[in-house]
Amino acid sequence: MRIGMVGVGYVGLVSGACFSEFGVEVVCIDKDAAKIDRLRNGEMPIYEPGLETLVEKSVAAGRLSFTTDLDEAVKGSDAVFIAVGTPSRRGDGHADLSYVYQAAEEIAGAMDSYTVVVTKSTVPVGTGREVSRIIARTRPDAEFDVASNPEFLREGAAINDFMRPDRVVIGADSDRAVEVLRELYRPLYLLETPMMFTSLETAELTKYAANTFLATKISFINEIAELCQKVGADVQDVARGIGLDGRIGGKFLHAGPGYGGSCFPKDTLALVRTARDAGAPITIVESVVAVNDARKARMADKIIAACGGSVDGKTIAVLGVTFKPNTDDMRDSPSLDIIPALQKAGATVHAYDPQGREEAEKMLDGVVWCDDAYATMENADCLAIVTEWNEFRALDLKRVKELLNRAVMVDLRNIYKPQEMRAAGFDYYSIGRPIAVSGG
Hints:
Layout lengths: L1 E5 L3 H12 L3 E5 L3 H8 L10 H10 L3 E4 L2 H5 L4 E4 L15 H13 L4 E5 L7 H12 L5 E5 L9 H6 L4 E5 L2 H10 L1 H4 L5 E4 L1 H32 L3 H9 L20 H14 L5 H24 L8 E5 L15 H10 L3 E5 L4 H7 L4 E2 L3 H5 L4 E4 L11 H7 L4 E4 L6 H6 L3 E3 L11
Helix pairs in contact: 1-3, 5-6, 10-12, 10-13, 12-13, 13-14
């Protein structure tokens, strides 16, 4: 089989590379010539564990190629995937579908035989129907079907998620389109992966419902963490206690500074807008958005309180700025709220992130960037862990204490145990757990 992949962002590049691993011929197209040149030279525009090796392997085998010529990607393809960005539209929170619709029009002009046009981008209900109208209007003679195939990839674990997914959801109205996509995903049938075939609208809404439900779990446990802090309970034990219930499950019950990234923030907003427009407002999701926004804003206050109520003239060491580990993605990261708030309160911020510095430097001004974790701590008045990269999980606490002006740690990811930090002589503050003050 042969497919085209329009867009080489996170979803398009990972999906294209994984399809090529299945033995499919994949042509990836993007208008960003610099990005295409980098890919042709073996340079990844994003950080994702295992992606560089996978791309290199498929390119060498002749199954994966990159181009700026859309005709080259579309002509002769059995299916063409639209994997362009759908960011939140400024002003109203709706998903900006301009890139999707532009891609649909350009694909229509390039098709030379029956083609299944698949929306891989996260799009609101009704987008597939509009894509179909655009193609039919642009090319009345075209033979095509439109399908929806939402992605469920976790940044940092995307390749495994694609190769061994919980499920594959495909929305399509024609048997012909279903058979094309069934054949494309045939390798997953051998693994007995659940395949769900449904309508366009159902597939589109399934993606939003999944992401907003997970975002809801995060905001729920963060609210419980606040209550735990007030009453002396331990949120990690509470999370385990409810997560062992098979009806609830333990995933996404880790208290922290709030969710971020490329999906949850924009998808919760988009679903809220879609629901309001349809006359069926989802007040639970509206509350989730509000809780998360407030959550990120309060994290700087937590650090300031740990410093005695003021950080004016003080230096704060920040470990981790990406929204989660194993990615360089800075989109809606809690650090984008926390660091500016600390700076506004008069603090100097020293920061280190294993992969996020290049992107973070574009978004955060006035930060002193360091080359390793310990360099951030020299003469700092407080250490704050914002992202739980593995290399922060076993810091040399004796060395940390020697480097800091005061042995104060604010752990926004609950990496360390309060009793151990107290024994090590730290004033230790975490999320939803008893405060550990050394008294020394």
